[in-house]
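Inputs:
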Amino acid sequence: TQLLEQSPQFLSIQEGENLTVYCNSSSVFSSLQWYRQEPGEGPVLLVTVVTGGEVKKLKRLTFQFGDARKDSSLHITAAQPGDTGLYLCAVQGAQKLVFGQGTRLTINP
Amino acid sequence: DTGVSQDPRHKITKRGQNVTFRCDPISEHNRLYWYRQTLGQGPEFLTYFQNEAQLEKSRLLSDRFSAERPKGSFSTLEIQRTEQGDSAMYLCASSSASGQPQHFGDGTRLSIL
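Outputs:
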């Protein structure tokens, strides 16, 4: 079983629509990270959330850390084709990162 | 801006051959990580170096895999007697200290024929 469960696994929507993807766990974490990975490239860190209930915004992307620090969501407003990619959540272990399986997002023009 | 560099970007080889990948981390970073990513999955941790010392290895790292970081700068990952299941993207990352963000390279995609 995965430590981090991401849903949905795939999402394809039209440009201009809003969407939310989720990262869930039964474990409590001190922090959680979101990455975006484009085809043929490595993951790029978008944000780290630390405090339960914390909301961080990055342009049209809104990240929320659950009050109990077990889950997180990523909401994209007015999605654009440039938002297409694999969105990964991850938690930091002693040294290593542990990733969810990702949500593959496709924004159609 | 010199990020994490990996070479080669793609490698196609026959089953049973040996392959070696190289990672050059960000120059001031003393921590270096290897991950493996298969299709439809997130990256999975393989091993970690602090300077030249290999401090942690995943159970995914079978005895056919060996990683080195001889001078605490670049690292190599070698896979001996490759198998079909080794086909994946091999990602390298580096960080400046424990708990600091890991910066990823663009990976080496390995395909086993």
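Remarks. Chain A is about 0% helix and 55% strand. Chain A has a mean pLDDT of 95.
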